[in-house]
Design a protein that fits this description.
This protein is α/β, with parallel strands linked by helices. The protein is built from eight helices and seven strands.
């Protein structure tokens, strides 16, 4: 990459930050389709066959993974929501319109579970990430109130070393005033830009009021299989 290209902002390198109306409409259509739970894996040996493009969701404990999944699908009960950190204790697979698999990984940085248990969940997530040929992107969820934490940076390093494409998604944006959102977004974008495997656009979302959900749907729809699996 030349010096001039490196100085450009993420939008210049990746295209418009906001998706087109057509892309948003396609995202809405896809995520309005049937989505069902298909498998849960507690070990690498139990992972289901890699058939469709996959998008995985991960993040620190209690970052709002279940809330974001439910907001994307437009359901309240697809992914179980709990105030108890570490509720996701296995890798859960959801199939969207037989075109895209959404993969809910166990969170990391658990404060209320045994260290050995937390390490086992992290090892399971890493086993999934290694060599999963159909994995198109990892959504790395970060609480907008706190920004990137050491546990997030450690997981980003894992993804960088594995050359797994990932996008940082800031959650709970509705809890911040607009000025604070801009500051947090800019800081995370600057740090994300230094990572080779990171997608150049940081998403800012709120599962509560829907901010950023349409744009995220549009991006994920672009990764899906063009036609349903027969």
């Amino acid at each position: 990459m030349g010096d001039h290209e490196a100085d450009q902002d993420p939008e210049a390198l990746s295209g418009p930050r906001e998706p087109s109306e057509e892309a948003i409409a396609e995202g809405r259509r896809l995520f309005a389709r049937s989505c069902r739970f298909i498998a849960g894996a507690v070990s690498a040996d139990a992972l289901p066959p890699a058939v469709l493009p996959e998008v995985a969701f991960t993040g620190r404990s209690n970052v709002g993974k279940s809330s974001l999944l439910n907001a994307l699908i437009g359901q309240k009960t697809l992914a179980r929501i709990s105030r108890t950190p570490g509720r996701t204790q296995q890798i859960n697979f959801f199939r969207l319109d037989d075109r895209l698999d959404l993969v809910d990984l166990p969170g990391y940085g658990h404060a209320r579970v045994a260290k050995t248990t937390s390490m086992a969940w992290t090892d399971l997530a890493r086993a999934y990430l290694r060599g999963r040929a159909t994995l198109r992107r990892v959504l790395l969820l970060v609480d907008a109130r706190h920004g990137l934490k050491p546990a997030d940076r450690a997981f980003m390093a894992v993804l960088d070393r594995s050359a797994v494409s990932y996008q940082i998604v800031l959650t709970k944006a509705d809890t911040l005033p607009p000025s604070a959102r801009k500051v947090t977004l800019a800081a995370v974008e600057r740090e994300s830009a230094r990572h080779g495997a990171a997608f150049p656009i940081v998403a800012l979302t709120s599962a509560r009021n829907g901010d950023g959900i349409d744009a995220l749907r549009a991006g994920l729809a672009a990764l899906a299989r063009p036609e349903p699996l027969r």
